[in-house]
Amino acid sequence: MATYTENYNLTKPGEEDFFSVADLNDNMDSIDSLMAEGESAMASIDGKIGTAQGGETVLGMLQEVKNGMGTGGLIKSLQRVTHNVPTSSGSSSVSIRTVDPSKCLVIMERLEDDTNSGCDKLLYTLETDKISMTHYSRSSTNIRLGFWIIEFNF
Question: Is the pLDDT of residue 69 over 50?
Fold first, then answer.
């Protein structure tokens, strides 16, 4: 009697089952579709992250580290902090572990925004031990931001 794989529900015929070309083709179609979705998602991320010095993509550089091909490790530190932006226009900051800002990439994400319009303008600067922000013309009462700080070894 056939069973099914845990993650993608692919057919696994039992020892007593006859071979079914239809089952094999269904499995192959499912695998092909999932691989295409993964490649499309990676291409989408790659385009959003951008290009590092020398023309190599940042995603490609990070992939090297993941695959263990980087020499001495490309990433020195990785940290994530969140910050609730004050309701009034002005400035604020969030503390981080000490980094060399000249060797960092910062990715900001909007985690929560009760009106989905946020600040008309928000500027941030990465400093050695904090991220300083200046925000203008708030239209939301609750804005929460996330910051990923990736420090490289180059």
Answer: no
